[in-house]
Design brief:
five-stranded parallel β-sheet, alpha/beta, about 210 residues, globular, single chain
Length: about 210
């Protein structure tokens, strides 16, 4: 039986990672086979690429960065996403191609069509069955992440960068409104969780 490929997207401090852990346990308790994974990462090779990408001493330009995200994505798709979906799993992935469009194109000002093109090459057109977009105001999100103390290369960007990334997600959610469901993540986490779960259950009840 074929499974489902679900991605979760959003800017920092949107609560998406907390939700992924919750949703995975919840769906397992309902009898579904579930795995969670993340990008960049998810395989041994892609986790190594992740280290390269986030190492602040690697002074890479935006195109090198985009290509590395693509390389790590392809390995992840080939070795993990496709095999598990084929086995009937619900694969919940923290970030996917929408992140590249939002961060590398809207954030880093690379041409949107170029990012779409390199990603369709890397993915052979694989598109998630459902995407949950946790939409949080940039100031709210950054206030939430302030105390976390993680500072990878992407975390060192300024307010304008994150505002542009958010605009990217907002545009994508309008362009692909059938696939991308928007969750208002400014609300308290419990409300966000409820909204996310409603969307997931609605989606799965429509034929798994
Ligand atoms: P991560 O530490 O996984 O945290 P979070 O997803 O909670 O923000 O950071 C991943 C970072 O990588 C994040 O800043 C977004 C960035 N990213 C891109 O710029 N492009 C991509 O294609 C992907 C998958 C991630």
């Amino acid at each position: 039986m074929k499974g489902k490929f679900i991605t979760v997207e959003g800017t920092d401090g949107s609560g998406k990672t907390t939700f992924i852990n919750f949703a995975s346990e919840y769906l397992k308790s309902k009898g579904y086979k579930v795995i969670t994974t993340r990008e960049p990462g998810g395989t041994e090779f892609s986790e190594k690429v992740r280290e390269l990408l986030f190492d602040t001493s690697n002074n890479i330009d935006a195109k090198t960065e985009s290509l590395l995200f693509c390389a790590s994505r392809r390995d992840h798709i080939m070795k993990k996403i496709i095999p598990y979906v084929k086995e009937g799993y619900i694969v919940i992935c923290d970030r996917f191609v929408d992140s590249s469009i939002a961060y590398q194109s809207y954030g880093r000002s690379l041409k949107k069509q170029d990012i779409i093109d390199i990603n369709s090459y890397a993915t052979d057109g694989l598109t998630p069955d459902l995407t949950l977009y946790f939409s949080v105001d940039v100031s709210v999100g950054l206030a939430r992440t302030k105390g976390r103390g993680e500072n990878n290369r992407m975390d060192l960007e300024g307010l304008t960068f994150y505002k542009n990334v958010k605009k990217g997600y907002d545009d994508l959610s309008k362009e692909y409104s059938e696939r991308i469901k928007v969750i208002d993540a400014n609300k308290p986490y419990k409300d966000v969780e409820k909204e996310g779960l409603n969307i997931l259950e609605g989606f799965l009840s429509n034929g798994f």
